[in-house]
Task: inverse folding
């Protein structure tokens, strides 16, 4: 097992990349999808089940964890890995994005952000330095630079000012992170949909120097076409020998489009959140299990899926569980969705390795166009 | 594997009995605790996890299942075992008790009960004949006779009339059940706290003839002392060569006291329901995980317990999950509680086999008297 963090680019197919990240806590096969473990738990899943779906790495949320149970407390309890019983790599976000979307009475200055907790109203401050400290206390393997980004659409001036502030914060994050062998610090490119601002941001980050680079500020309201428009040029602005992470993405077709455009890592609450609201993702598109047409359907959600929900249960049963408000409904559908997302990633990795990503992608879209199986 | 239902009494120690029930779906080691799978799921557990805790048999609720998803629907989907992915034995109650406690606008006649569903207000009827039909449609291995019982305290006349009605319904249940090799029908003794009525009920049931006998009408408000008072004489009124089932019991000390008095089978929602409200059962008594004293306690709930909650997590983590309203809290605490209840039964079975039940019981009470471990 390595004691260092490193990225190996193993193959490319067009802009799509097959790679491997080595860390002291294990390997991450890329393109990688990271399930989100917001409050030190991937909701409705035991961590051994998350590993069974094929996940190599989880994402933890600095904002949620700093508020409850608190970073210092987690540190005293041996760090986030031990706290939540997950010994593989963990990436933590910086807290910046979630402060902006969840916290109350936030105030942004050059120094950082002050805000009130959405849980108990307590005052908190997040700065690049405090974000680095919290992520160190959590024991995160991949630490994200502290940044800020506007929801889109936003005017160019707002995007430009925000990006430049984030670049100054990126430098302070790098300084505060220091030298921590085995742990990585990722910078985050900003610039909205403006190509020149993306280029300026990428240059600033490269000048500072990071172990990996995220494309930030997307999946914030701009739509898929605009996002793909940015991804057509933004990843190439970042160093080819470092992993590229697209934050907060996405739906299966977003993910496929992002990988096609050179993205190596992604995260999203979609598979877990949808699992709790009765939406299942399958090769043939999304299925709403609460729909009455499933109520007496003895067939599995997806006959070709090997997850426990599909292997052991009928649509009729899953429908019943959801209607009855049973916890097992969230457990099984979350498992299915995470399994599907990981199979999607595995399929793309295999296709890139074989140099047949275009054919794989065509088949992906063909299956989705078929739509869900007909009612019996 | 047998094709018949049978009970073997293997050892006795005082009134306590060690036994084995053989069914075509597998063996049930007695004394047995049956987790409750109300709506075709043991809440917050996958069935393979329920089996891992050591459960040989589950209880299903006729009342809940007839309302949603419906007995005919479950039958068309292949029966309850297949529907919920549990291939070991299932006992179903008759629906009588839950109609009386949950349904709206109920009307009791000699024929049976009419009522409105608490879910959607739809009109339903339950009679001994319909209860037998529903339990057959579900595919239940152990079917309970349809009965009725008053909450205690109740006056003697009400208890007597109710018991006699239940005995007439027991005869109709026996008639309607017919001959179903491999499936068992249990009669239910009633009579409240009145010894002579218990004797009359037992005689009536024996005259009809059942594969097993339940002590019913207890755990309905009478308190432990009164319940044990009945259990001091009621089980001995029932045939020694048939299993004796105490319905709806109970807390760990209720269970131990019942086994001591000759009970072979029990069921209760306590371990599962408590698991969702933050209460854990341990050798040293109940622990409320939501209590602030656990918030930084790195120790497991019970260092001597082998369940996943105790093996993999700290009290601090379990406390955090409960406070954050996480589904994993219910999953882990339910698992722990079911594990504890099954360990309790295994301990008693071992003690009876060795002829040292009294010593085992003394140790059980000694550990509980110690109370939970001290805060750090």
Result:
């Amino acid at each position: 097992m390595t004691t260092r963090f490193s990225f190996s680019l193993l193959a490319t197919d067009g802009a799509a990349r097959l790679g491997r990240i080595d860390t002291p806590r294990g390997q991450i096969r890329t393109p990688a999808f990271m399930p989100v473990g917001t409050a030190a738990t991937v909701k409705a899943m035991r961590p051994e089940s998350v590993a069974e779906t094929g996940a190599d790495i989880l994402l933890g949320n600095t904002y949620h964890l700093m508020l409850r149970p608190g970073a210092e407390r987690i540190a005293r309890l041996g760090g986030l890995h031990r706290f939540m019983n997950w010994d593989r790599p963990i990436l933590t976000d910086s807290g910046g994005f979630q402060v902006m979307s969840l916290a109350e009475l936030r105030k942004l200055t050059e120094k950082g952000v002050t805000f009130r907790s959405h849980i108990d109203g307590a005052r908190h401050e997040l700065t690049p330095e405090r974000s680095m400290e919290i992520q160190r206390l959590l024991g995160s393997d991949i630490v994200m630079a502290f940044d800020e980004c506007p929801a889109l659409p936003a005017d160019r001036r707002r995007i430009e000012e925000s990006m430049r502030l984030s670049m100054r914060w990126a430098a302070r994050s790098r300084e505060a992170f220091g030298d921590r062998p085995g742990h990585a610090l990722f910078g985050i490119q900003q610039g909205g949909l403006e190509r020149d601002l993306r280029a300026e941001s990428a240059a600033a980050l490269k000048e500072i120097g990071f172990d990996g680079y995220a494309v930030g500020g997307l999946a914030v309201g701009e739509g898929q076409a605009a996002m793909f428009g940015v991804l057509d040029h933004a990843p190439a602005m970042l160093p080819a020998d470092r992993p590229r992470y697209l934050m907060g993405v996405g739906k299966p077709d977003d993910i496929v489009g992002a990988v096609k455009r050179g993205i190596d890592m992604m995260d999203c609450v979609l598979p877990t959140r949808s699992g709790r609201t009765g939406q299942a993702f399958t090769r043939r598109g999304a299925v709403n299990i609460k729909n009455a047409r499933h109520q007496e359907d003895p067939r599995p959600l997806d006959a070709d899926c090997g997850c426990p929900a599909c292997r052991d249960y009928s649509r009729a049963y899953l429908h019943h569980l959801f209607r009855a408000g049973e916890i097992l409904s969230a457990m099984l559908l979350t498992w299915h969705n995470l399994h599907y997302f990981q199979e999607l990633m595995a399929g793309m990795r295999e296709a890139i390795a074989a140099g047949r990503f275009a054919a794989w992608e065509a088949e992906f879209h063909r299956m989705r166009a078929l739509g869900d199986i007909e009612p019996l």
Q: What stands out?
A: The longest helix of chain A spans residues 327-354. The longest strand of chain A covers residues 6-13. The CA atoms of residues 297 and 376 of chain A lie 7 Å apart. The mean pLDDT of chain A is 97.
